[in-house]
């Protein structure tokens, strides 16, 4: 289902990213020093108070260099924190540490979890913490972002299979506290199932932390690029969607060819993602660099769903490697 009813293309970014006006007001490239350090980018300021969201398509920013051993984190009330690590392994360790902090500090923590290749080392780190006895999952409630549709949980490409394999079966999380959208519901029940999943998140009190990856086309969860007004784009419900051509083509090798990739999926909507009390978004590799740059330095738009995180910028932390951050300076 294409909510815009319009055509979608493989082109990304969906606008002239490098020549548009706001691109002239980007970061100070001279301050960026690639190497074995962690960099913090003070991202564009988009006011967010958790109730009303104000969006201003203006961007200014600066880099602040930090040593990797530093525990200092730059916090500004209206800006995202963006940390660039020398490699993805370091970023995944940092992500696992932040998730572990939430599990330890929040009573009955509610986690929104992601799948895909990006968070696999994060889950490995969490499993290691559990095995060492330093992390208890018995009180954790998790809600996965998405699931292909239709798909059986016995299919090793299903996200239920992925989560059992990489996390759930290793950490003693009670089965009735680990929620994944069901890719086997009949088509006529899919919308109600998605709405029910959203009600479960709501009745649990919302998400304490949402872990995200980012698609090459800028998607978060399976909220795909679309033509849509911003007000609607930030309030999308959990629902069945039609997968974007870029998403299907990226999934094709894992499914053994494009013809085997489901055409649809169920996804938690932007409404719940943006309501999460903390958002951790991870991006690694050069093939994510355009999406990262458009999300952080372009205007907030439904055509780049991760750019919608700018509307709740003070709750969002980006963990990047050097390659995915490379376009932030127009290199
Ligand atoms: C998966 C999900 C997707 C992925 C994104 C990146 O639950 O929500 O948005 O995070 O497609 O996938 P990888 O990590 O495989 O590059």
Describe the overall structure.
The chain is built from nine helices and twelve strands. It has 331 residues and is an alpha/beta fold. It has one domain: Rossmann fold. A nine-stranded mixed beta sheet has the order 2-1-3-12-11-8-4-5-7. A three-stranded antiparallel beta sheet has the order 6-10-9. Mean pLDDT is 82; it is low at 1-11 and 15-78. The site of fructose -6-phosphate has 13 residues, from loops.
Bound molecules: fructose -6-phosphate
Strand order of the largest sheet: 2-1-3-12-11-8-4-5-7
- SSE series: EEEHEHEEHEHEHEHEHEHEH
How many helices in DSSP terms? Answer: 9
Mean pLDDT: 82
Coarse shape:
globular
Number of strands: 12
Query: Which residues sit in consecutive blocks of at least 5 with pLDDT less than 50?
Result: 1-11, 15-78
**What is the strand content?**
15-25%
Helix content: 25-40%
**End-to-end distance, in Å?**
36 Å
Any guess at the CATH architecture?
3-Layer(aba) Sandwich
Our count of domains comes out at 1
Biggest β-sheet: count, sense, barrel?
9 strands, mixed
Q: Rg to the nearest angstrom?
A: 19 Å
**Secondary structure category:** alpha/beta
Q: What's the CATH class label? A: Alpha Beta
Please name the CATH topology.
Rossmann fold
List keywords for this structure.
331 residues; Rossmann fold; alpha/beta; binds fructose -6-phosphate
Q: How are the SSEs ordered, and which strands pair?
A:
Layout: E1 38-42, E2 62-66, E3 81-85, H1 88-105, E4 110-113, H2 120-131, E5 141-144, E6 146-149, H3 159-171, E7 178-179, H4 187-203, E8 209-212, H5 230-233, E9 239-242, H6 245-255, E10 264-267, H7 270-275, E11 279-283, H8 289-297, E12 316-321, H9 322-325
Parallel strand pairs: 3-12, 4-5, 4-8, 5-7, 8-11, 11-12
Antiparallel strand pairs: 1-2, 1-3, 6-10, 9-10
Helix pairs in contact: 1-2, 2-3
The structure holds fructose -6-phosphate.
